Structure formats: structure tokens, C-alpha cells
Amino acid sequence: MESVLAVLVGIFFAAAIYLMLSRHSIRIMLGIAILGNAVNLLIFTAGRITGLTPPIIEEGADTLGAGTANPLPQALILTAIVISFSFLAFLLVLTYRAYQDLNTDDTDDMRSAEPKDQPMPPTGY
Amino acid sequence: MASSSSTHAVDIAQAMITAPSPLGEWLVILPVALCIIVGAVLMLVRKHTFWHPVIAIPALVLLVVIDAMLLYAVCTTGPITMVAGRWLPPFGIAFSADIMSALFALAASIVGLAGAIFAVDDVNRSGRRYGFYPFLMLLLAGVSGAVLTGDIFNLYVWFEVLLISSFGLLILGSTHEQLDGAMKYAVLNLIGTTLFLIAVAYLYAVFGTLNMADVAMRARDDATLPTATIAALFVLAFGMKAAAFPVNFWLPASYHTPRTVVSALFGGLLTKVGIYALLRVMVMILPGDLANLGMLIGISAFLTILLAGMGAIAQHDMRRAVGYIVIVGIGNMLAGVAIGSVEGLEGAVFYALHSIILMTALYFVTGLAGKLAGGFSIGAIAGLYRRAPAFSGLSLALFFAAAGLPPFSGFWPKAILVKSALADGSWWLAAAILIGGFFSTFALGRVFLLAYWRPAPLGGGGPVIRLSTLEWLPLIGLSALVIIFGLYPEPLLAVVSRAVEGILSPEGYFMSVFPGGGL
């Protein structure tokens, strides 16, 4: 099970990096979305896939029985999903605004902050 | 299941304390709680912009007081830990403060207060309406949380909190430049924190725990654990946060675009949080890997200093030049981490604290100079000295401090770093620090010469402009700190050396997290 997930995580990472190398901001955003999911799957695999019994402590016991699923990665992933979702929402709005205002989604043309033809700094008094 | 819980017999009776938390422990979470609560209150009065500074400034004064009390408490009684729901680690999530956390939290709160006062005049009504003060409070909540947390996953969460508030601050005003700068800043920083999360996942896979003290103890117990990949990922992620070469190009692309006060807070706080995390993780949690990666960090520091120094010289925009000066400082701190000796780390921590205060003040000066002159291009500004002599004198003092010239606070950490680099045999790092200092002096000297000293062209120059008290006050306060720590560095140096001792041999930290000596 772990090896299957490991291959899947690898494919996700490869796709994310491929998309993030693009010049178009919307493809970069898609890459970031996939990257977030790749990391979530990685956390899930890092917690070991142990069993299908839900992690509920039985009556009278103080700890989880043997063979139950590990609840901690699920809690971590839940946090990470919420965070990456909100960031993606922000980034999509930002990308759209940048596209509207700068009239391009090509990152090579986004040079308002660093103009190409800056004058040289003064060399004399 | 991760290895920990199955191999360790857990004493359930010891897992939870039912006695109420002692009052002193509340100090650890109070900075974070205060910032979040005040941030929420400010959101409630979003439309009554007059009240924002009236609420935020006293709250930040209180934050400075709390952080000072926390520093006093950890200096006298040792590290303090508070756990969620009174469940002891590894069950409960811990907030732990040692001297280094308290020092960074205090410096951050001072800068936050200065920024809040400066912003009264700098941020206009629409800026406040779009939430400058709530974002400022949440930014400080993120920074405080990041330095005070004792759990590495929570460190990631606090990183994201400060990141999302910094996006909000960066975009305030929505000019074309800001949108462009924010795109690069947002995407690259998000990728940086995602790399951090990948490292956290691997850390969990290897250690089965995310409590910093727990991980640190296990890493010290068993040196054969495969932690090299994790350490390399951490260095890359935190290097990206801290703007170390080769992952620093987002900083000069974005830091000059927002309002003065936002640039000042970013230049002061955000990169230094990366340095804090690097110190915490590489020195305290994975000390074995610091020795292996020292060379890599050293080369990165070397190139960061030299390339950023040259970058600073090549700029004709004053704000962009200051952005490169921030990066030179980061290189110096990284050099301290790379050396890794007690002295080197002392230099790095001292430099970070100095840099938090100084870079904020330097951006204030830059912003005010731009305001006085009506533009930021050093070719076009001239004759500032004639029109604002006191302000120019203060600027020169801060320029000296940034270049590391005595008698200002930049001199001491640099001297310590050079000395420790030579003692360690890394003469090339010592040379880089000195050449970086020369480049900074050259770049800032040219700014002073051309923008301040050069007489204004005939008929130009404009009238004498007076700065308001609320602009002077934070600037003078921060400059006073720079000068005091330049003239009397001993008290701060003593605290810094205890802080470094605390992360190099963190037995006190472990004891505060596991009062029973660990499970």
C-alpha cells in the first residue's frame, strides 16, 4: 500500500513541478494546488498505513487497540488542507487581479516592480 | 503506526495534570492570544477607522510589556512550557519559551509597536479600512507564535499565519507594482512553506513525533537515524524564508513596492523568522546534521553577502538598495550558523536582533526621505541635508549601523562573527563579511552623498518640510536602541550568550517540556 502511494506522490510532485515551471501564472497556480495535495498524501504515507479499523478508543480502555488507523496524520492533513485551500483562494484572486491590471498572465511580462530599462546609478557627485 | 507510541509504555496517570496552570505559564501564550483577540476586535470595528490605532497601540505597548516579562521570567527560572488542555507531551501540543524565543518575541513586539505608531500618518483612511491594523496584529500573532511554539507542525501553521497577513499587508493599495511584487512574493513563499511541510512529514515518518523537545532528544539518542534529507529540506525551506542565495530573488522584487511601514515591518521581521527557525531546527533539534551541512550553508552565506552587496551598489532606487542591505545581513547571520561554534551562533543571534530593530528603522528613514524629496531615485533626490539636518544626521547614524561601523550596534555582532570565523579557520567567510561590510558602506555612503549631501539644483529643492511627531517618535525610539546597544553591548551580549547556551545544550528546555525526564 505504501509503495503504491509513494509512486502516486511522486507522480503528483512531477506534475506539480512541471506546471510550476510554466510562464503562465494560471498554470503555476494549478501546479501549487497539485503540490499541496502531493504533500498531504506524503504526510498520510509518513504516518504509515496500518489498518482499516477507525481510531476509536473502546469502552473501558485508555489507548487505541492494535491495528487501528493512525489518527494524527489525518489531523495534520486536515489542517494543511484548510490552509492550502485558503491560500489557493487568495492566490487565484491575486492572479486574476494581476491579469486584469497588468494585462498579461505571462510572468516574463510582469515587470512593473522591476522595470527592464532602469537607469544606471549615478557615478559622480 | 509511527514508531513512538508502540515502543514506549505510556503512564496514563502521568499524562494529564489536573491542577490549574500556574500563572507564570500563561505568559507563554499571552502574546499570541493578545494579538489574535485584538486583531478580532479591530475587525469588529473595521469601519470606525479612527479607533484602530487607539486600540492597537495600547495593545502593542501591553505586548512589549508581556514579552519583557516573559524574557525576565525565562532568564530567572529557565524555559517555560504550557501544554494544550493540560495534557503532557507527547499528547498535548506544547508552547515552549526559552531565552532565544523570548528575545526574538520581544524584538518583534518592539518593532510592531514602532510600526503601529508610524502607521498613524503613513496609512491613509482607505488603507485602514482595508485592514492595516488587524493584519498587523495577526502578523505579530504569527511571529510570536512561530518563536514561542514547541511543536514543529505548529511552527508551519504559524508560518502560514504570518504569511497570509503579510500578503494582506503587501497588497494594501493594489497598485500595479504591488500586484506584480505580491505575485512573486506569494508564490515563492508559499512554495517555501510547502517545502517546510514536506520536511515535517519526513520528520514525522522518522521520529513518530512532532514535539521539538521530543525530536531533539531522539535525534541525540540515536545518531544513525536518516535525517540528512530532512535537514537539507529544512535548510532549503528556511533559506527561502530568510532570502538566502540562491533562493532570494523574491525579496528585491517585492519589498520596495508596499507602503513604507509595511516594508519596514517586512524588512525587520519576516526574514529573521526564517533565521530563528533555522537556528531552532538545525542547532537544537538536528545538531548532528548542522556539521554536515555547515559547508553548504557557508557557501550560501558567502554568495549571499557578496552578490547582495553588489546588488546594493547597482541600485538607483533607495528602497531597493535597502532591500539588498537586508539580504547582506541575512548572509552574515547564515555565516554565523555555518560556523556553528558558540561564538558564531552568538554573533548570528546578536546580528538577528540588531537587524530586526535596524532594518525597520532604515526603511522608516528611506520612506521619510522619499516623502521629503518626492521620489525614491537617488539620482533625483538632492539637498536633503539642507532641508532636514536633524533627520539627515539620524539617517547617517543608521547607515553606519547597517554598514557595521562603530559605535553603533552593527559593529559588535560583525566583530564577533569575523573573530569566530577566523578562529574556526573559515577565513573566506571572514573575508566575505568584511567585504560585505565594505559594499554596504559604499552603497549607503553613495546614497548619503548623492541624496543628502549634494546641493539641490538651483531653484529646486522645495520648501523645508516638517515631519510629524508620530513619524519622529518610532524612528527616534528605534535609533536610540541601535545606539544604546552599540555603546553598551554587554547586557544584551550576556543574554544572547545564555540564549545560545540554551539551544546548544537544551537540557533545561527538555526538562520544562518533560518534567519527569521524558517518557
Can you put this structure into words, describing what you see?
Chain B: Belongs to the CPA3 antiporters (TC 2.A.63) subunit D family. The complex is a heterodimer of chains A (125) and B (519). Chain A is mainly alpha-helical and 125 residues long. Chain A has a domain at 2-51 and 68-102: Helix Hairpins, CATH 1.10.287. Chain A contains three helices and no strands. In chain A, helix 1 (2-20) packs antiparallel against helix 2 (25-46). By secondary structure, chain B is mostly helical. Chain B is 75% helix and 2% strand. Chain B has 22 helices and two strands. The two termini of chain B are 18 Å apart. The interface between A and B is large, with 46 and 50 residues.
Characterize the overall form of chain B.
globular
Percent of residues in helices of chain B: over 70%
- Name the largest protein-protein interface in this structure: A-B, 46 and 50 residues
Instruction: Bin the helical content of chain A.
Output: 55-70%
The residue-averaged pLDDT of chain B reads: 88
Alpha-beta classification of chain A = mainly alpha
Oligomer: heterodimer
* Helix-strand sequence of chain A: HHH
CATH architecture of the domain at 2-51 and 68-102 in chain A: Orthogonal Bundle
Number of strands of chain B: 2
Task: Considering the chains and any ligands shown, give keywords for the structure.
heterodimer; A: 125 residues; mainly alpha; Helix Hairpins; 3 helices; 58% helix; elongated; B: 519 residues; two-stranded antiparallel sheet; 75% helix
